[in-house]
Design brief:
elongated, Immunoglobulin-like, five-stranded mixed sheet, 4 domains, disordered N terminus, six-stranded mixed sheet, 447 residues
Length: 447
């Protein structure tokens, strides 16, 4: 190739890259909070010409709405943001190799018939590289990437990028593929397609004790489980999954096996646990956790958190001091004083926030709980007391380190009979005593 042709080609590529960048834009489809504190779904258009892009966002929204209305994602739909990036292609559709070859010029180089499977839609390394570049430019905080292919042929795939055509079943295709891409779920059918492997919902294991979803199996359920109507509604060990008859699935039917079915209990659990493995449900807190909090006497120090609750159920909150649960401390605000902690050494104040949903039974990694820990030093300091006397009255006053102490009174010095508690000092700065009162003795007492 001549230097002139190489130069012209380079200039053409530069123009193409500039042109794509100029026409590419992103819109927000769903916002529930800052991208740093939510799970972000990013859609790309594939095989949409400039004219086709008029219906791209609606196509993406159809998939998004269906995904987030599906069990168990609907309960956590407020944990997600979604964005649509519009990228024009030179031609509409996607490459096909059956029943006849029809190749088109699209931005991500998508194709049907991957590995000889007509419905399997994938992109090549060039398409992946282009997606990565656009993500870095528009949404580096992505969690799920979905490619909407402007082709009505039934097809899709899951992997690093969720891919779905705009077939009439596109919403279900996208939701099934979301299971692959987001939670690493396996296909639950035995048709040839790939090499079988262990997934959260597929296994070659037949020993009940070692079975990863045994917490969902009711005692007495046969293992393996007969695939007969009397067992269709239970979790067991059903033959046929991961493209092999030697692998097993948790239930007779599931969205990872058949479009239109719901996610089974085991797949639902995997989806929920994946959400919590990627997201903190403690959104904000005060004070900072990287300093040591000084707790003096009864002066109140307040610890606060802000949580991200699911749509219809609450999160459990529990506060601890030095790993001991504080009875009744189950709100998002906790108050501690120097009297609550030992007077020497470093103490710990901890909060645990847990989602106790019944949709999760097996959580060895403890992802359903988020915790924060503060270091605190408990100090008991002697309060300073001053007395001001006039002919009419005597005034006792004290520093704020007396907060939390009781003011007690005894009527005589002789033998110091039992003390009478007067009040617990909170925001009072002093107390006035009539000078005509009988002789009395006063003290400050730690609770």
């Amino acid at each position: 190739m001549s230097r002139l042709r190489i130069l012209l080609l380079a200039l053409a590529l530069m123009a193409l890259n500039w042109n794509v960048k100029g026409q590419t834009n992103m819109i927000t489809m769903l916002t529930n909070g800052p991208t740093a504190k939510r799970l972000n779904i990013v859609f790309f258009s594939e095989g949409y010409t400039t004219n086709d892009l008029a219906h791209y966002v609606a196509d993406a929204r159809t998939m998004l709405n269906h995904m987030l209305a599906t069990f168990p994602l609907h309960e956590y739909s407020n944990y997600f943001n979604a964005f649509a990036i519009s990228v024009p292609s030179n031609q509409s559709g996607s490459d096909h190799y059956t029943p006849t070859t029809n190749l088109v010029d699209t931005y991500f180089n998508s194709r049907f018939d991957t590995a000889g499977i007509q419905r399997l839609v994938t992109i090549d390394s060039t398409g992946q590289s282009r997606a990565n570049s656009l993500l870095a430019q528009f949404m580096p905080e992505y969690d799920v990437v979905a490619l909407v292919v402007n082709d009505t042929m039934y097809g899709g795939s899951g992997g690093s990028i969720l891919i779905s055509s705009i077939n009439s079943s596109s919403a279900e295709i996208a939701t099934h593929e979301f299971g692959h891409t987001f939670a690493s779920l396996g296909d639950e059918y035995s048709d040839a397609g790939a090499t079988p492997s262990e997934k959260p919902n597929t296994t070659a294991q037949t020993n009940l004790v070692s079975l990863k979803w045994n917490s969902w199996i009711v005692a007495g359920t046969p293992i393996p489980t007969p695939d007969t109507p009397s067992y269709y509604s239970v979790v067991g060990l059903f033959r046929g999954a991961a493209y092999s008859t030697n692998y097993f699935r948790p239930k007779h039917n599931c969205k990872m096996r058949t479009l239109g079915a719901i996610f089974c209990e085991v797949c639902g659990e995997a989806l929920v646990k994946t959400i919590y493995s990627k997201l903190s449900i403690i959104e904000s807190f005060s004070p900072p956790t990287n300093i040591t909090i000084k707790l003096t006497n009864g002066i109140a120090n307040t610890f606060t958190i802000t949580n991200l609750p699911p749509l219809t159920h609450s999160l459990q909150v529990q506060w601890f001091t030095n790993s001991v649960a504080v009875i009744g401390a189950t709100s998002t605000v906790f108050t501690a004083t120097g009297f609550d902690l030992p007077g020497s050494g470093t103490n710990l104040v901890r909060v645990d926030v847990s989602d106790l949903t019944t949709d999760v039974r097996n959580d060895p990694a403890n992802v359903m709980k988020n915790s924060l820990v503060w270091k605190a030093s408990g100090v008991v300091a002697s309060p300073r007391i001053s007395i001001v006397a006039t002919p009419a009255q005597i005034t006792l006053s004290w520093t704020n380190t007396a907060t939390g102490f009781y003011l007690d009174q005894a009527s005589t010095l002789s033998g110091l009979p039992p003390w009478t508690p007067l009040f617990l000092i909170s925001n009072q700065t002093g107390w006035v005593i009539s000078a005509t009162n009988p002789q009395s003795v006063y003290r400050l007492r730690k609770p």
